[in-house]
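Standup notes
- HV: blocked on the assembly model, inputs below
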Amino acid sequence: VAIYRKDYLPPDWLVPEIALDFDLDPDRTHVRSRLTVKRNGEHDRPLRLAGNGLTPLVVRANGADADWRVGGDALVIELPGNEATIETEVDIAPAANSKLMGLYASGGLLCTQCESEGFRRITFHADRPDVLSRYRVRMSADKARFPILLANGNLVASGDGENGTHWADWEDPFPKPSYLFAMVAGDLSANRDRFTTMSGREVELNIWVREKDLPKTGHAMESLKAAMRWDEEVYGREYDLDLFNIVAVDDFNFGAMENKGLNIFNSRYILADEDTATDIDFDNIAGVVAHEYFHNWSGDRVTCRDWFQLSLKEGFTVFRDQSFSGDMGSKAVKRIEDVRLLRAAQFPEDAGPLAHSVRPESYIEITNFYTATVYNKGAELIRMMQTILGPEAFRKGSDLYFERHDGEAVTCEDFVRAMEDASGVDLSQFRLWYSQAGTPRVKAHVEHDASNATAILHLAQSIPDTPGQTGKSPMVLPLKTALIGADSGVPQGEEQLVLLTEGSASVRFEGVVEPPLLSINREFSAPVLLDVERRAGELERLAEVDPDPFARYEACQELMMRALLAGARGESADSTSVIAAMRGTLISNALDPAFKGEALSLPTEGLIGDRMELVDPDAIHSSRETLRSAIGAALADELGRAQSVSISGADLSPQAKGIRRLKSVALSLLAAGNPERGAALAKAQFDAADNMTDRQGAMMVLASMDGPEREAAFAAFFERYRDDSLVLDKWFALQAAAQHEDTVDVVEALAKHPDFTVRNPNRWRALVSNFAANQWAFHHASGRGYRFVTDMILEVDRINPQVAARQVPSIGRWRRFEPTRAKLMRAELERIVATPGLSKDVFEQASKSLA
Ligand code: ARG
Ligand code: ZN
């Protein structure tokens, strides 16, 4: 059954107070709940409390047996008055909870995940984000097994009970929706630290992990403190409790969760040291720790009215964590990474059967809408508002938003209105970004009039149809634009912010003496697909001279893309200009290594496919490998120099990370140009590595080759890290991502490996998601890749539908592929839909992909 945004109604009953009492035990946890409920407005409807898999043992209203019934997934209670105290009791079994939603067991711990609708698996409750309550929580458990008892807010009392048990009382002074409830019990040790807020509040910080993992928590703690400071400085937001707890758990459906005062994390986004984590892992940890911390304001203090507004907190918070990471390292490189992710994950979503707007209109299962569109395109919307308003007005807008809505559950519209009210800028047309799905396309070309020293930029936009949405209106596209003199390489005038608001427009530039190079959509100021009519040599020149690093990166990438597409079409591709641009980048003294690493990374096979009418994975693969080997051969000396630089793994400065990044990019190109030399260099890099970044970079290259070096490296890696599950995930992931003809066989065999399990989401994704993202291997012409992924989806769906459903889109994109593959993919989707007992999560994704 679909739920529609337009059907929103305020809650019939409010729940100002909640008291919960847990007798914790993995096999049978007894839950007592006492809700204070108040009729909201004038109506005579009963109280409806959601429950999922719960059997009511006791239901009382005002201390007496209540008039209640169970209807569908709800407990329905008839209440005569306008206020009541409702008591319920249920038993739940955390150890049997394989969905990892609600209260579940992970490696001896008991922990919770409630967003979006997990709380109803713990106790009967309205469980919608616009019902905010103050929580009191009593936890009791066996003291030896569960020495640490944590919940939201502050610890107010604790003590020992009978039979070796103990208890703790927690109180959260901030009213919150049920999706922010959290609780953890287990044998944990803390990395303890402190933070003094800008107004002088002393906050106790704890990162809770198993004792043996304590040495790996330093980076997460530093990141947390940096994020707390940054939010004070950049947004004026201060932390509001005396205590901030983070817990790392091994079994977790997503990255992490912003529960008030008690963030719960997938351990992969907490634990790191240079021997076990790559530089990218370190950066991801900083980004996710900051993201969850930032939610304290953008999510917890100001929350969502309903789940259609999810981007209100996620888009904004992603934008905030992106800005934070940009400020901590290189802004330009961070922007390149974010755009790479947007293009890899969100553009295909917007172009496929599951396309939806940033604020969706309907859903069957809300968990399916935690998407790149809601998160990452949502973040682009906030970024565009900042670009249009300017940083000062944007800050005024965010201040007004927080001040106006503190303690409320609000909508995306409320956010935009705060921005308008604070800035005086009319954002009516901008709102289309929230409602219209699909990536806008922009055509651009420049006409130069040398005699008048003017240039005219012609622009036209179109918004493609998406499922259920046709005939769209033009949107506001903020395009940062500069014209650069083709001869001198010098900008002709200032960069301008061109706002394209009509279907088409022409913009006049004065003082353009030389023939201009068009540098447009700098910093990716609008998330659009650009189609620029260019003169011969224009991209080459831009790749050489554009002073804006992001634009220069784009020119390099576009140059490569043109060669790759030509190759994939079977045209003889000329690689000389690509090689020249890459040589220029490599030897430049002005560019830093991190930027070079990005600029020299060829567009992925997936990205090339997105630019083709119909994707032909084999043609793309051979075109890309041909270009890689041409580059590797032609630039062997320059690449060799970049690859031979060594820097201590203990050095985690942005500079050091950049050097390592470039080192592995260089290795990979060298190996493409000369496999024998590549294998030797990779083996040497692997053997000499004092850090996971170099080690993994070497393995990535070896994984795609034949020979004893590959076997030896993978065997050694396995022996060394077999007891470290996060590193073992990498061992699975690297093999699943290998560009090798035998990858399908390898992956099928790995699914039978004793260390593979469908019960741990990280392990499952290490194998299955990485394989499905490996275009050439997954789209094996035999259809074996599709069959494997489908089998895996169906297997995990029986125990954990959310993990299963997130993988369906990889098969759902069948219309984009050449007919043989399209047919095979479609058949697998049909097999999914025909499976008895399918979850509604997977059903929604698969059936929409077939429609
Ligand atoms: N709010 C969490 C975050 O982005 C993610 C929760 C994911 N929940 C879900 N049902 N998919 O930080
Ligand atoms: Zn989030």
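- HV (later): unblocked. Residues 291, 295, 314, 317 surround zinc ion (ligand 2) (CB under 6 Å). The first strand starts at residue 3 and ends at 4.
- Next: hand off to the docking folks.
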